[in-house]
Amino acid sequence: MLNLIKNEWIKIFKQVSTYIMIGFLLLVIFAAGGIMKYMESQEKPANDNWKQELITQNEQNKAQLADAEGATPSLKEFYSKEIAINEYRIEHNMPPENSYSVWGFINESSGLTHFVGLLVIIVASGIVANEFSWGTIKILLIKPYKRWKILLAKYLTTILYLITMLAILFVTASILGLILFGKGTGDNVHLAFVNGAVVEQNLSLYLIKTYILNSLSVFLLTTMAFMISAVFRNSGLAIGISIFLLLMGGTITNLLAAKFDWAKYSLFANTNLMQYVDGMPLVEGMTLSFSIIMLLIYFVIFHTMAFVFFTKRDIAN
To answer: Measured between alpha carbons, how far is residue 130 from residues 33, 49, 314 in Å?
Structure first.
């Protein structure tokens, strides 16, 4: 198995596109750092009227919340969260950060996990399908390995590539953030909005959880792209469907959740486990254990389809 994984890893890094993807990821991180540095230079210096500013913001947020009656749950949650956190800061005399820090940049960079997903989906979509397109599948299958081992090696290599790209994102964001913004004030507290209440969380642990949980939707979509590649032998189809769902799946699910409770059974209603750490469940009654069970069900379905089709289907050409 290790030899199979090693061979697949070598195949990935023999392709020029792999290095282009890594370079593109680094470019996006540096661009994000440059934009944040510019925004920092344009911000007004801190003043002693921050409480009044938060009160004014809350008045505006409450007006927006009142007008958002038919809005999606995520939009209502956003306004509720902003109001609650601002009130907590005023009550506990905790002024908002007026300058960026390495922690803030790492937190902002966690949003780039979806960009990483975009890149990894391309690899996952082609790692099986390309064997058929290039005509190398027969050479691969005559080797003394069972089909399920070959497919498993390809999947594990894809996940290893995903972990590598996420590690590049985290390490680069940490180093760049430290260079551009420094350590900040040293406060290690994050205000989270959980089940309608504001709680203080350790910032370092929060950032680790953010990266891990934000990567979960990418992990599931990578698995789905891999499944489509194995079932339909078409990398273009796998890339198209997976990228569409990566970009639009959450939005569509939010719209459905505003009207239908059954939306909680969809994949994208459960991939965002951050809703249990720093937010509210998309549909009332959803719990962390429910989402984990749903994700495991989807994971099993994707792999069952991939392995059944790949191991049972006759390789005619």
So the answer is: 36, 61, 17
